[in-house]
Amino acid sequence: MRAAALVLTVAMLSVAPCATAADSLPIQPGFYVSIDTPCQKASNATITLYDGTSFGGAHVECRKTFTKKLTDGSYQLTRKCKDMQGNGGPWETFTEKDTVVSQTEVIVTTSSGNFHYRYCSQSDLPDPWNTNDLKSIGIKDPGH
What we know:
mainly beta; 10% helix; nine-stranded antiparallel beta sheet
């Protein structure tokens, strides 16, 4: 009887959906701009950089600590970030849910809300983003 219960439990676990670890999101590395902002009008408030590991902002440094693919097909990213302005701040842990719409479009859901971004070629961005050296962080922009 115990063996049958163990086999049933193992069988149930093997077919139950679960989250799996993922190295990165299946999207193009580079600059992403709010979906309602033309690439040429990007600003600190509407642009983010996906370096192939995590998204970064204008005045924060972030390090991805864990990515997992959820059963609904989205991704949960846990990362540590700190403010880079002034004296900076302590490292804080944040969790976000990223829904990949396509290889060049993503919806980022955080405790602050939903943010819908699309990829913009670096050459389509205004200064200073169109001249940033992304190769120094391992990103080759095919549009530059």
